[in-house]
UniProtKB/TrEMBL annotation:
<keyword id="KW-0274">FAD</keyword>
<dbReference type="Pfam" id="PF03275">
    <property type="entry name" value="GLF"/>
</dbReference>
<dbReference type="Pfam" id="PF13450">
    <property type="entry name" value="NAD_binding_8"/>
</dbReference>
<comment type="similarity">
    <text>Belongs to the UDP-galactopyranose/dTDP-fucopyranose mutase family.</text>
</comment>
<keyword id="KW-0285">Flavoprotein</keyword>
<dbReference type="InterPro" id="IPR004379">
    <property type="entry name" value="UDP-GALP_mutase"/>
</dbReference>
<feature type="domain" description="UDP-galactopyranose mutase C-terminal">
    <location>
        <begin position="148"/>
        <end position="348"/>
    </location>
</feature>
<dbReference type="InterPro" id="IPR015899">
    <property type="entry name" value="UDP-GalPyranose_mutase_C"/>
</dbReference>
<keyword id="KW-0413">Isomerase</keyword>
<protein>
    <submittedName>
        <fullName>UDP-galactopyranose mutase</fullName>
    </submittedName>
</protein>
Amino acid sequence: DLKYDYLIVGSGLFGCVFAHEAYKKGKKCLVIDKRSHIGGNIYCENVEGINVHKYGAHIFHTNDREIWDYVNSFVEFNRFTNAPIANYNGKLYNLPFNMNTFYQLWGVKTPDEAKAKIDEQIKDLNITNPQNLEEQALSLVGVDVYEKLIKGYTEKQWGRKATELPAFIIKRLPVRFTFDNNYFKDKYQGIPIGGYNKLIDGLLDGIEVKTEVDFFKEKAYFESIADKIVFTGKIDEYYNFQFGKLAYRSLEFKTEVKDTANYQGNAVVNYTDRETPFTRIIEHKHFEFGTQEKTVITREYPQEWDESKEPYYPVNDAINSEMFRKYKALADNEKDIIFGGRLAEYKYYDMHQVIGSALKKAKSI
Ligand code: FDA
């Protein structure tokens, strides 16, 4: 007989939010995860008293008051504001592109001078119909911003030359004519005080959880114990890869403890030249204004994905989008399975979007 109303496969944000909503409505839930910890990709590991973002830097931001109130009901958020720095061949620039950046590039002091400089550079190039990412970016910001702050970083991220990447990857390149280094435009932004694990613990409070359990290893059993399944793993794996394997981009993180209190003075420093093999260095303590004696830094190396690596970013090209469409058609016909989250929907989702999506799907409970 059925022991649970819902079996939730995956303890990432999607699974946790769904489980919490089901639990609130009196449903009996079991959450399983194949990893040794809960939280999915927002999980943090404590090293030297510092919350280390094990699966990449996570900064919460949203324009949605309801979602902001929702997360703050589990843990209070701090006032962290993402203001990344770019290091190009040893020189530092503020990001996103704003008056500070333009001053650092050209010494211009007014918005009119900055606009004139960019317009002049764009005009000189005379690109009317951009054929690739390089031409697209050049036609939006001109040669200096592109060469120093976009080209190398983008090529490392995609593992391909900018001239071989499609133009559509970059639709807009926001340039700001104010001295404003706040990367995000959203009204609300911050990091949970005490770390993301507190958010996960709050969501799963009172709910049964099992880690180091792979759904596929005991599929028949798990299907037999619950009325409905919420699946947040890879959709192609759920359907035995019958239409092929969906592709991803991956990352390798190399983390180091440094015997100094402050290594780079900022949470995020991007390395925008082509030669430095990593794209950025994260100094985790700065997300929480940490005052520990030591510091922990992580270098991020973009990678081609294969089965041995974490699937981080979906590759939304024509082949993979078409393949996903076929899997989704199967998923749409399922009565007792809800597919949700970044792996099951093969979609790059920010945290606030995953929460929004889970809350929406949970309305059917
Ligand atoms: P998530 O991957 O977190 O959870 C899925 C869980 O399912 C995993 O724990 C996995 O182990 C488990 N699972 C899979 N298959 C299973 C199986 N067969 N059996 C059992 N368990 C299984 N967002 C943002 O708002 N701000 C930011 O700064 C960032 N930064 C960022 C950096 C990097 C490098 C990445 C890749 C992503 C971000 N994000 C982000 C996005 C953020 O990570 C994302 O929105 C959520 O973590 C997604 O939550 P999900 O629950 O969908 O997946």
